[in-house]
Write a structure and sequence with these properties.
This protein is an alpha+beta fold. The chain folds into three domains: about 100 residues, Immunoglobulins (Immunoglobulin-like, Sandwich), CATH 2.60.40; about 70 residues, no CATH class; about 130 residues, 3-Layer(aba) Sandwich (Glutaredoxin). Helices cover about 35% and strands about 25% of the residues. Strands 1, 2, 3, 4, 5, 6 and 7 form a seven-stranded mixed beta sheet that branches. Strands 12-11-10-13-14 form a five-stranded mixed beta sheet, with helices on one face. A hairpin with a 5-residue loop joins strand 13 and strand 14. Helix 2 packs parallel to helix 4, helix 3 packs antiparallel against helix 4 and helix 5 runs antiparallel to helix 7. The longest helix is centred in the C-terminal third of the chain and has 17 residues. The chain is globular, with a radius of gyration of 22 Å.
């Protein structure tokens, strides 16, 4: 889930900063000609912005303007061919940075991925946070470290733009997340994205285990409405996913297996896709390719999905297991967790 969530963060601008000139200066010793360096960033609802430069004696540079500070990715094409030399191969070398109103230095010996970020507080904080991300620890330990980062760095935008948003996902208690949000400076809490985060926290308070699952109506692939209320009396797994979400697609075979095992036992799945209007065909094709035979709905609004907002969904895959009485039993169950929970419910353990 974490990878998918970080892809979502790529599309989040840091809106409290605006009209920025950026300078990225790289020095990575073993990157030599004919290597090329690509820079990519994206604002919500827009096409990706791309730039490229050549490498001279291990050094490269990007200059430009961005209307808001934004997360970007540096890609290294060691062969100096084109982007096709990067994707689909095992030699992907990349480094995520913020394009900020200052100089960002990318300094390393053997790769962009391992390079250190210096030059401005935003990217230095991001580098420190990124070192935590690399640690091979459990999801719960990861979330505890996220919380600790926020406590130790309440004035850092990384505390909001990375750590806090991640804590709104999964089984971390909302009562633990809300005080962390309140500890952030007022200018961050009152920013456009800060308000969205507060709304997500408030939404999470309504979808904790034991609460009534919020009702909704959403179009299926033919435009007919799927209503959650129509499934009352059944066990329902509300599954948030998208055709472009790698971890979601990887999880689908397990869901198919579980669905086939329990569909005759008063259990079903309702898929909620976060695909966009231009991705409808990809959504339908993914349903067919992955063999998803349960109800599928989407308002084709991506992260602006009304159902996603209703359930405080900020990253995918996410799911909610709902009982016949309409109350939420559990959320964010992986394949083993879902199998165990259904085994307990139906006595098939």
């Amino acid at each position: 889930m974490r990878k998918t969530f970080l892809l979502f963060l790529l599309m989040l601008p840091v809106c409290v900063l605006a009209q920025k000139k950026f300078l990225v200066k790289g020095r990575i010793d073993n990157i030599q000609a004919p290597a090329k360096i690509f820079l990519s960033y994206k604002y919500p609802g827009e096409r990706s912005h791309w730039d490229s430069t050549i490498v001279k004696n291990g050094k490269f540079e990007f200059r430009g303007n961005v209307r808001d500070t934004v997360l970007a990715t540096i890609y290294v094409d060691y062969a100096g061919i084109n982007l096709n030399d990067i994707w689909g191969r095992n030699n992907v070398d990349e480094r995520m940075i913020y394009l900020a109103n200052d100089t960002t230095n990318i300094i390393g010996a053997d790769s962009a991925y391992k390079a250190k970020l210096t030059g401005n507080k935003l990217n230095e904080d991001y580098y420190r946070f990124g070192e935590l991300v690399k640690a091979p620890i459990t999801s719960l330990e990861r979330k505890k470290e996220d919380a600790e980062f926020i406590r130790e760095n309440p004035d850092s935008y990384i505390s909001y733009n990375q750590a806090l948003i991640e804590l709104t996902i999964g089984n971390f208690k909302v009562d633990d997340v809300a005080p962390l949000f309140q500890s952030l400076p007022e200018n961050i809490r009152r920013s456009k994205e800060g308000i969205k985060c507060e709304q997500a926290i408030n939404a999470l308070k309504t979808v904790v285990a034991g609460s009534i699952a919020p009702d909704f109506a959403i179009p299926d692939i033919k435009g007919n409405l799927i209503k959650l209320a129509s499934f009352k009396g059944e066990y329902v797994l509300l599954d948030f996913w998208a055709s472009w979400c790698g971890p979601c697609r990887e999880a689908n075979p397990g869901l198919v297996k579980i669905f086939n095992n329990y569909k005759s036992k008063n259990f079903t799945i309702v898929g909620i896709s976060l695909d966009g209007a231009t991705e409808k065909d990809a959504w339908i094709n993914a349903i067919k390719k992955d063999g998803l035979t349960w109800p599928q709905g989407s308002d084709l609004k991506r992260w602006d999905s009304e159902v996603a907002k209703l359930y405080g969904v900020h990253g995918i895959p996410q799911n909610f297991l709902i009982g016949p009485d309409g109350k939420i039993i559990a959320q964010n169950l992986d394949e083993d967790g879902l199998q165990k929970k259904l085994g307990e419910i139906f006595g098939t353990m």
